[in-house]
Amino acid sequence: MKILVLGNLGYVGPSVVRELALRHPEAVIHGFDNAYFSHCLTGATAAPERYLDRQFYGDVRTISASMLEGYTAVVELAAVSNDPMGNRFAGVTEEINQKATVSIAKLAAEAGVSNFVFASSCSVYGVAHGAPRCETDPVAPMTAYAKSKIGAEQELAGIDSDMVVTCLRFATACGMSDRLRLDLVLNDFVACALSEGRITVLSDGSPWRPLIDVADMARAIDWAVQRPASNGGRFLHINTGSDERNHQVRDLAAAVADAVPGTSVSINTDAPVDSRSYKVDFSLFAKLAPDHQPLMTLSDSIGQLIEGLQRMKFNDPDFRASPLMRLHVLQDHIAQGRLSEALKWLPL
Question: What is the CATH number of the domain that holds 176?
């Protein structure tokens, strides 16, 4: 098996390449990334790329067919990866998350790649009150990020080839990483507890969020790179997470406060209803991938975040203005003349 992981130098990538390398010691694993965040290491004692056989650098918008020849599987993690970045770079979000993804998948099919794995998102369900959403329910993407994900899914479904395509609609990511992000709800709460002893919930705490630890995202990707068409069909979009990890925001805050003694929680009970609320049904993933189910509990994720942040000697109450927020990293690159507004590297 020969695997190419696109976007491996971000938040999820270190866990993915580690999982694939440990599960498949005989495999050849390569990474490809434009290195926006390669310097954003957080507490790692060695580069996570040590698990790779080779690291390539480049822009996914420029990948050619020849670069994909010989691979068994391609994993597409590369993305403008959250709503704040999507709002700031809406056009680029569509270019990278949707257009580049579809172009790469078509080239991969032509090159004879057997499995293509796309990191999609449960955010495609948008405002979703009532019963947990399953894969046959309508989608209602509300943001540039979510629209790019469902747009890519819809185009991937139209590729006419024998290549097995798996769109993993991941729950909201969380957990410790060698390139940690704090612009995610659970990670933010743990950072607040450790740096301020206080968690402020801006909503009334009622919105639902499904969560998945990056370690469990990696397990799901390991399943998808091997998935035969007989298990779910040649094209599959699938909610990826576990029913047990649908949480209300107020319960996340309470769980973090319990894990960090002395932490207070403030909830804005007068806040307007947060439209970003949805529960998700993960029963299809449980059925099709019984050996790759999430193992990390909420307590596990919180505990590893606490341990990791303490190892970093983290104590920054102003972390939302720091490089631990991905948007700030991109803005700094632009301000320093390293990146263009199109998120392309500028000449030195």
Answer: 3.40.50.720
How confident is the model over 20-52, as pLDDT tens digits? 999 999 999 999 999 999 999 999 989 999 999
Q: Residue 184 carries which DSSP code?
A: S
Asked, for residue 347, whether it belongs to a domain, the answer is no
Model confidence, pTM: 0.96
Asked if residue 345 is part of any domain, the answer here is no
With respect to residue 343, please indicate whether it lies within any of the assigned structural domains.
Answer: no
Torsion of CA 29, 118, 301, 14, to 10 degrees: 30
101, part of any domain: yes
Instruction: Judge residue 302's burial from the number of C-beta atoms within 10 Å of its C-beta, 0-12 exposed, 13-18 middle, 19 or more buried.
Output: buried
Q: What are phi and psi of 209, to 5 degrees?
A: -135, 125
* Residues of the domain holding 53: 2-335
Residue % of the chain over a pLDDT of 70: 98
Using one digit for the tens of pLDDT, what is the confidence trace for 257-279? 999 999 999 998 776 666 667 89
Nearest partner of 19 among 295, 237, 290, judged by Cα: 295
Residue 137: pLDDT band (50, 70, 90) is very high
Are the CB atoms for 190 and 24 separated by under 8 Å?
Answer: no
190 burial via Cβ count (<10 Å: 0-12, 13-18, 19+): buried
Displacement of CA 335 from its chain's centroid (Å): 26
